């Protein structure tokens, strides 16, 4: 079986497996958070899905309803496969190089986490027996945001005529995914040509979308290094620009092509302005040159790994997976710059390219503690959509801001309100991420420009959604928490605890920035009301069972018949009606357990152990969001092997294609869950007030180390079975705590402390057949 | 202003008001429960909506979803406007009679509740000054189910040439209602022609629907009585058959045309079989003749009024409205014969022609106590759909049978599951109607053929939906009760009380019919489980407020801001999002109050008074289902004027067009609510165990009397301010109770008893601006 080679710093696939291409197109995707390119073969075909994406560039379509209702979103948004600049076709003496024909004697692709490039090497024999070696290397530049580049080398075994065609190709035909025919129609050739120009080795195509009216331009330029007798041509028309080079290459000779790509899009700028932008990007790229781009890319990544790297000793495959995760999280967020970080990043069309709350609760913690500027930019995107969120709250009869369940441009796109609109925790998640970012960075500029306003507007939403009731405190009724197998519940514990923190963060923000509070018309009464609501917040607890309720009434609901549920019935949402899932004690994904992670300060250790056992027995993990969080709490309550199993599940979700859908793109939140499982799980990192650790190695690992950034200081935590060592990498001293003991770590003054024995928790079991795969590391 | 004349036995509209035609097309509709014809003018135009319906004849269309889910219904059904046989056009010396041109010097239409006909008399002057009197009378026969007939007379003032065209017209163009374009497309010319034949004075057209594949045939035949020189012709083609008669009529002469119509439809029978059926219907009608049909119709109605009439003295308009209501309820149900009784009957295309739970809870009580065979037939329809209901339960992961929220053929058509699928009370409502019918008739044949099976299958649904919980008894979670401003709640009191009764009725049915119980594989354990579940049924009560909760947690929800809601914001579902309605204490329609009516045995008098006051303050009556029930409870707790106001609202919903939608059809449940308000409200009729009364006259009425049928006995209850008299009309003695005192009424032995003073209830108020109009009867 073909599969990935295990290596510490790269992901490599040897051999050709056409049916597996669609998987590797996602795992080998390159992105800088602005441009995304799936890892398709240079020659375009065979392929699973083509895919070139520009963050924020979408087409719009009507959302259909069998029975419409007031306030239902009317327009959906779907990420568009934009003009494809990856395509470089090769003709070997008139035979097109196509991996489905002839023989791929050697074929090898490798995503390099340190160079930030995708390399390919193929020894291909044509049907008539001619052999060429094709080597290509591709990058999407972290340093030049609008630029991608491909270095393409052909070395024939014998003297041969080679023709290379390098394309810009708009409106590539895509196999329609099942679903609403109107969406499919909207995405059938979504780009309308505005402009096509070509000269020398350069061409530019400009298009706009039919319904959303967004404009984009793509340009390409080329450098050739080859033999005499080269003939080149270029032309551009509507949806195609093509640069052609033909040359006779002697035995031992080579054709070397560097293709520079520039992209730009805008909702407002004109076609000439976009063209100018693309031309400028190409000019910059050519000035830097291929080797220069490579060097910049490596320097950028060297810096990233200095602050973000994770080492694990004892599980090489996990080592690879963790760096793979970090690399893709960086790719998703590095240069988003006030655009959303989508659920799939820019690696595929899954979830229509929408961003969800997972960005704030899973992806941003990673970025906040490794590349805080990227976290800041993602939160600036939320801030830039405040008008839409305010408008949405208003339509819903609420005050403050209601952020959307799913969106590209900030407008709600969810056509099923019980799991969309009602999931108001999204706004609490945004506030949580803001507070976390501010605590981790003390970024006063962001606080004053965006943070305080975001906290105030979300606090206002809770005051409007909730009410002080004579029965039992401040209630937030009729909302949906993280668990998608419940909906429209009263007093979801997670939501209420996030709201509580949101209200308190808003109080603090207004105290920090009284002038901004004044501008936002926050009065003393309002602040007092926030305090009181936070104080009186209802947190449902079942005294009979001694556990917290996921939401009011949850623990009195019927149990799900797990014994009678067949393996093929999972994920349950595809085989069971929502109504039955909603009213029973079956949990799709960590909800109360997630609350115990991010609001761990609201639970005692005993409560955590009892709650974890209770919900573990009812959680089916039909969502890729769940395993990382379960790993964190399993580690905290003392189930270290189970925590390890969950960490592995999160880390290998995409590499092992556990949900059989990686072809639609990577699961960013699951990748982030791997980091969270390691850093917050085995590292015990918490940030309830200040940064604290409680590291403890799982069985099977000999050592682990992770790095973070906190308030400008970069440091590492290295953990063995007996001891943890805190070491400053750069910056000032770090005040933290180790298993509850406050410590201060100075530059060049590492602190080592013993690791205490884990607590002995109550036994836990999962629903029948839903235990995670036990991970026995190869070396363990 | 034009409007209805007030008269005791008819509804009459004098003068012509083209914009009001669409209202009167519904109020003047004729139907026998099998065929329905809107009260359009003979000449077809001007009109609001054409409309000829065959009960059960529908077209199918796909239901669209922005985000689909497992178990969502995929096909919708919509009633089809079938071949129109009402059209008779008149040419007066080449000028078509059209009420929009020339002058309608006199114009008068009258729906006669005793003859069961719609009469029209028009004195029309053509644009060139020619005058004719047109008189027509139309009936849909109660006695010959497949037959309708029109008697059409033209009397010119001067000698004139008259041409009459009598049509069968399929696929009439209908102005599209707003909504899903796919539905509109499905209903654009839904009939595909199969057959057209004409000879002599008779023609037949046969069609089928494109998607649902149902077949129908319509035939017409004619008798003419006129002067010499008559020339007639007939032809038929695709969507049109036309009989033409031309004659010179002398001054003082007349043209008299009788048009007989026959209809048939089937999902299975062939075109020739349908044609034969229509021909047979026409042959029967001609044999009976127009006068014969009139006589049969009157005899049928005489019998109806003997058992069903209501008299009120002191409010003539209410008198008329009550008979109007009874007449239309009879029309909706008389000859349905194992087809559904739709929410609009066969009076218009509203609600897509679907039947809802209102049939069982509002319409069937009226029929059960007046025309029990019609109630039986409607329940036989439910029984005939048991396979679909079992299948639906199975898809939903439940046992037993789940009846649909809305349907024509028994398959669920609701595209919004929180208010459709989740409204499982529908099945309890069916069981309630079955138990009520059986108690009122002791119809053992129905019991053995249908009743017991319906009770068992619905009881099984509750056992599957609910569970015995250690916390608080037998819980039914995650369902939606009658109030559509709440959804997906736990332990809706109404639902649980209906389920309780359903379980107990099933126990009794199995005890009555042990052989059938055996066939249905009901074991002793199952019966014991039903008993226990009924015993332990959770009924949520708020001890702090001293009231029952509509559902668990309801009374702790936020109050709706009624003061801040503007009059134009009602109905709230059009201006407020469901999510906000669902989570607040705002009630669309009687829910807990309906439970206090139909399960009044489960509440004390004090609880009823306290509950009524609590829910009255939170009920906005955005549904036409509500007023009748509020009238009943207002009367019971002692708010007699308020009860009267609500009774009037129910009774005048359609005549005063209170919801501005009567053009889409009459509100059958509201018409039934008028009967219920009078009989169960002021009559105090209850049937919890045996039939009992507690009559009490509202202020403003001098006297009222109503008639009913119970176990074969017809009797009347006549009420004055001081006294009530029970009198047998036909049949054996009646055992009942008067204000708690058991009485026996023998044939020719009327019983008169004094009416006690009403209790003094706590004061009640309605939400701001939502009090019902105070009714000051014209004579009061």
TrEMBL record, chains A, B:
<dbReference type="GO" id="GO:0004553">
    <property type="term" value="F:hydrolase activity, hydrolyzing O-glycosyl compounds"/>
</dbReference>
<keyword id="KW-0378">Hydrolase</keyword>
<dbReference type="GO" id="GO:0016757">
    <property type="term" value="F:glycosyltransferase activity"/>
</dbReference>
<keyword id="KW-0326">Glycosidase</keyword>
<comment type="similarity">
    <text>Belongs to the glycosyl hydrolase 65 family.</text>
</comment>
<dbReference type="Pfam" id="PF03636">
    <property type="entry name" value="Glyco_hydro_65N"/>
</dbReference>
<feature type="domain" description="Glycoside hydrolase family 65 central catalytic">
    <location>
        <begin position="323"/>
        <end position="675"/>
    </location>
</feature>
<dbReference type="InterPro" id="IPR005194">
    <property type="entry name" value="Glyco_hydro_65_C"/>
</dbReference>
<feature type="domain" description="Glycoside hydrolase family 65 N-terminal">
    <location>
        <begin position="14"/>
        <end position="266"/>
    </location>
</feature>
<feature type="domain" description="Glycoside hydrolase family 65 C-terminal">
    <location>
        <begin position="685"/>
        <end position="745"/>
    </location>
</feature>
<dbReference type="InterPro" id="IPR017045">
    <property type="entry name" value="Malt_Pase/Glycosyl_Hdrlase"/>
</dbReference>
<dbReference type="GO" id="GO:0005975">
    <property type="term" value="P:carbohydrate metabolic process"/>
</dbReference>
<feature type="binding site">
    <location>
        <begin position="357"/>
        <end position="358"/>
    </location>
    <ligand>
        <name>substrate</name>
    </ligand>
</feature>
<dbReference type="InterPro" id="IPR005195">
    <property type="entry name" value="Glyco_hydro_65_M"/>
</dbReference>
<dbReference type="InterPro" id="IPR011013">
    <property type="entry name" value="Gal_mutarotase_sf_dom"/>
</dbReference>
<feature type="region of interest" description="Disordered">
    <location>
        <begin position="732"/>
        <end position="780"/>
    </location>
</feature>
<dbReference type="InterPro" id="IPR005196">
    <property type="entry name" value="Glyco_hydro_65_N"/>
</dbReference>
<feature type="active site" description="Proton donor">
    <location>
        <position position="484"/>
    </location>
</feature>
<dbReference type="InterPro" id="IPR008928">
    <property type="entry name" value="6-hairpin_glycosidase_sf"/>
</dbReference>
<feature type="binding site">
    <location>
        <begin position="588"/>
        <end position="589"/>
    </location>
    <ligand>
        <name>substrate</name>
    </ligand>
</feature>
<protein>
    <submittedName>
        <fullName>Alpha,alpha-trehalose phosphorylase</fullName>
    </submittedName>
</protein>
<feature type="compositionally biased region" description="Low complexity">
    <location>
        <begin position="765"/>
        <end position="780"/>
    </location>
</feature>
<dbReference type="InterPro" id="IPR012341">
    <property type="entry name" value="6hp_glycosidase-like_sf"/>
</dbReference>
<dbReference type="Pfam" id="PF03633">
    <property type="entry name" value="Glyco_hydro_65C"/>
</dbReference>
<feature type="compositionally biased region" description="Pro residues">
    <location>
        <begin position="753"/>
        <end position="764"/>
    </location>
</feature>
<dbReference type="Pfam" id="PF03632">
    <property type="entry name" value="Glyco_hydro_65m"/>
</dbReference>
<dbReference type="GO" id="GO:0030246">
    <property type="term" value="F:carbohydrate binding"/>
</dbReference>
<dbReference type="InterPro" id="IPR037018">
    <property type="entry name" value="GH65_N"/>
</dbReference>
